[in-house]
From TrEMBL:
Transmembrane intervals: 41-64, 373-392, 404-424, 436-459, 471-497
Xref: PANTHER family: CALCINEURIN-LIKE METALLO-PHOSPHOESTERASE SUPERFAMILY PROTEIN
Protein name (record): Metallophosphoesterase
SUPFAM superfamilies according to UniProt: Metallo-dependent phosphatases (SSF56300)
UniProt KW keywords: Membrane, Transmembrane, Transmembrane helix
Length: 576
C-alpha cells in the first residue's frame, strides 16, 4: 500500500465545457441537467419497484457484489492537510432527492465561508458524502439530475485550493450493484466531481488527517458483511495506526440505533473496530453515518455516535429515538463482541416536540404529495364499491357489467392483504411482530368499513339505477376521486396511530416528503489535535432560485431569492 501526497490544485483549463459555460437561464438545456421534484415515495409504481429492488438486493446481493473485484484497484491511502497544518472537513449524507433541498445544502457547502451563530466557518478542504447520493435508485440519469448536477451548479469549477471528495455508498447506491457509484466516484481519469476532486480508488477509503487523526470510510453492503479485499486493505491501514491515533469512522447506516430492534445490526462495525483498530491501541472517537434523515448524537465516555442524514432527502422523525443505547447490544449473537457501553442521547434535530408536530402534517401532505397513491386508493375503493353494490342489490346485470365488477371476495382479500403488507413492507427489514399484524388487520378492516359506508351512500343516490355503463362512468368520475381522498385520510390516520407504536414510522414521514429541517456537519481539526464538530441546521430550504449575477468561474450558478439562514443544531462538540 502506498501513500499519496496531497493533490495539487487542478488547473482550470480542463474543468469541462458544462462547468465553464455559465447558464443564461434556469432551463434544463442551459443547466445541463433537469432539476427534479422530491421523490413521491408512495407512488404505486415506485413502491413496487423499490420493493423489488430491495428483494433482489437481499436475494442476489452477493452475486452483484463488485467489492471482490476491487482487489485489482489501487490500494493507496490519502493525506489531507490544510495550509495552516489543520483541516476543515464537511460531512453530508442522503442528498440526492428533490432539487430545492439538495441544492440548498450544496449551496451552503460550496460557499467560501459561512457565519453560523457567530462562528466563522470557511469552506472545507475535504468533503465526505456519507451514503445514498441518489434516490430512488442508482443510475446515470438519476445521479446527473439529483446529485452531480446540483453540486455542479453550487461549485462549477475547482477553486484554487481544490477541495477533495470522498464518498461512502449507501443502500440506494447499491441497488445497481454499485456500478454507477464506481463510475462516478472511483475514476482513473477526469478525477473530479463538479468543483471537488475525487480522491478514492475503491468504494471504501482511508485518509490520514492532521495531528494523528484518521478518517476511515467503510462499505458494508447495507450491513451484510465486510469483504476480504476490504479487510485486507484496512489491515494495511492498521499498520500505520498507533496508540496516539484517533479515528473518525464513516459508515453507511447508524447500526447502533438499528440494533435496538435488530441486535445483530452492529456486528460488522464491532468486528471491524475489535479486530482491526483496537489491537493498534488507536481509539475510534467518532462514528458518523447517514441513512436516517435527521441529526442525532449519542455521547459515551470516549466516543460520539452521530447520525446526520440531512443532505436533501425527506425528513425522518426524531421523537421515537431511544434516550439511551447499549452498544454493542447485550443480546447480540456474536460471542466475541466488545464490552457493552452505554450512550445517552445528547442532542437531536429537529427536537422531539417539533418532530411530533411534523407527524400531524400527514393529513394535509399525503394526498397532495402522492397523487398516484390517492388515485390508486380511489380506484380500489371504486371497484370495491361496485362489488359490494352488486351483492347488496342482488342484480345480475348485463354481461359487460358482470365482467366489469370484480367479485367481492377477491376485492376483500386484496384489501386485507394490501393493508397487512403495508404494515411491514420489504424495505422495512427485520421480523414481523404481533403489532404489525394487529395494526395491519385493523387498517384493512377500517378500509373495508369505509367501503361499506361509501357503498351505502352511493346506493342512496340515483347513479346506480342509470342504464349501463353510465353507473360505471359516474363511479369513476365522481366516486373515485372522493373515495380516494377520504381513503387517503384514513391511511393518514392509520400512519399516525401506527407510528406511535413504532410501525410505519418511515412511511409516516416519507409520505409527507418534508424538505425542511436539513443538516450537515463541519469538522475542524486544529494543528494541536483538537476536533470541533459544528452541526449546521437549515430550518427552511429555498424554493425560489435566480441566476447569480456574479460571473466568476467558481461562483454558484443559482442563488436563493430569500437568503438561507443556517444555525447550529447544538453547541459545537469539542473532542481532545
Amino acid at each position: 500500500m502506498t501513500d499519496e501526497p496531497p493533490r495539487p490544485p487542478a488547473p482550470e483549463a480542463h474543468p469541462g465545457e458544462r462547468a465553464t459555460r455559465r447558464p443564461r437561464s434556469i432551463d434544463p438545456r442551459e443547466l445541463g441537467f433537469t432539476p427534479r421534484r422530491p421523490v413521491p415515495w408512495l407512488a404505486p409504481l415506485l413502491l413496487i419497484s423499490t420493493g423489488l429492488r430491495t428483494l433482489l438486493a437481499m436475494l442476489f446481493g452477493a452475486y452483484l457484489d463488485k467489492r471482490e473485484l476491487q482487489n485489482a484497484f489501487s490500494d493507496g491511502t490519502f493525506r489531507q492537510v490544510g495550509p495552516d497544518g489543520g483541516l476543515w472537513l464537511d460531512y453530508v449524507a442522503d442528498l440526492g432527492d428533490g432539487f430545492d433541498a439538495t441544492y440548498s445544502v450544496a449551496y451552503l457547502l460550496a460557499q467560501p465561508e459561512l457565519t453560523v451563530d457567530g462562528h466563522r466557518l470557511p469552506r472545507a478542504q475535504t468533503l465526505v458524502m456519507g451514503g445514498d447520493q441518489v434516490y430512488p435508485a442508482a443510475g446515470y440519469e438519476a445521479y446527473e439530475d439529483r446529485c452531480k448536477g446540483p453540486y455542479q451548479a453550487a461549485l462549477p469549477v475547482a477553486p484554487p485550493e481544490r477541495p477533495t471528495l470522498f464518498a461512502v455508498p449507501g443502500n440506494h447506491d447499491w441497488y445497481d450493484g454499485l456500478t454507477a457509484f464506481l463510475r462516478l466516484f472511483v475514476r482513473t481519469r477526469d478525477r473530479h466531481f463538479a468543483g471537488w476532486g475525487t480522491g478514492q480508488s475503491r468504494s471504501y477509503f482511508a485518509v490520514e488527517l492532521p495531528a494523528g487523526w484518521w478518517l476511515l470510510g467503510l462499505d458494508d453492503q447495507s450491513g451484510s458483511y465486510l469483504d476480504d479485499p476490504q479487510l485486507t486493505y484496512f489491515d494495511e491501514v492498521a499498520r500505520k495506526l498507533t496508540p496516539e491515533s484517533k479515528v473518525i469512522l464513516a459508515v453507511p447506516a447508524p447500526t447502533w440505533v438499528k440494533a435496538v430492534d435488530h441486535p445483530n445490526a452492529y456486528d460488522s462495525i464491532d468486528y471491524f473496530i475489535r479486530t482491526l483498530v483496537a489491537p493498534t491501541g488507536a481509539q475510534v472517537r467518532v462514528l458518523v453515518s447517514g441513512d436516517l434523515h435527521h441529526y442525532a448524537r449519542y455521547a459515551g465516555t470516549d466516543r460520539q455516535l452521530i447520525t446526520c442524514g440531512g443532505g436533501g432527502a425527506y425528513l425522518y422523525p426524531t421523537h421515537r429515538l431511544p434516550e439511551m443505547l447499549e452498544v454493542p447490544p447485550r443480546d447480540t449473537l456474536t460471542r466475541r463482541a466488545s464490552t457493552t457501553q452505554e450512550y445517552d442521547l445528547a442532542a437531536r434535530y429537529p427536537d422531539k416536540a417539533r418532530s411530533r408536530r411534523y407527524g400531524w402534517g400527514i393529513f394535509a401532505r399525503l394526498p397532495f404529495r402522492n397523487p398516484g397513491f390517492t388515485t390508486l386508493l380511489g380506484t380500489l375503493h371504486t371497484l370495491l364499491m361496485l362489488a359490494m353494490a352488486g351483492v347488496a342489490v342482488q342484480r345480475v346485470g348485463t354481461t359487460e357489467q358482470r365482467l366489469f365488477s370484480v367479485p367481492l371476495a377477491i376485492m376483500l382479500v386484496l384489501a386485507m392483504m394490501g393493508a397487512v403488507f403495508f404494515a411491514k413492507p420489504p424495505t422495512a427489514g427485520g421480523k414481523r411482530h404481533a403489532r404489525h399484524w394487529i395494526l395491519g388487520v385493523a387498517h384493512g378492516l377500517a378500509q373495508v368499513a369505509l367501503a361499506a359506508g361509501g357503498t351505502w351512500v352511493w346506493l342512496q343516490l340515483p347513479f346506480y339505477d342509470w342504464p349501463w355503463p353510465l353507473p360505471a362512468v359516474a363511479a369513476v368520475v365522481l366516486y373515485g376521486p372522493v373515495s380516494g381522498l377520504v381513503a387517503s385520510q384514513l391511511v393518514a390516520l392509520y400512519l399516525l396511530v401506527a407510528g406511535a407504536f413504532g410501525v410505519n414510522l418511515n412511511e409516516l414521514f416519507a409520505a409527507q416528503g418534508i424538505e425542511d429541517s436539513k443538516a450537515f456537519l463541519r469538522f475542524r481539526i486544529d494543528p494541536d489535535g483538537t476536533l470541533t464538530i459544528y452541526p449546521i441546521a437549515v430550518d427552511k430550504v429555498s424554493h425560489a432560485w435566480q441566476l447569480n449575477p456574479d460571473q466568476s468561474p467558481t461562483a454558484p450558478w443559482l442563488t436563493p431569492k430569500t437568503p438561507l439562514t443556517p444555525r447550529l443544531a447544538e453547541p459545537p462538540i469539542v473532542i481532545r
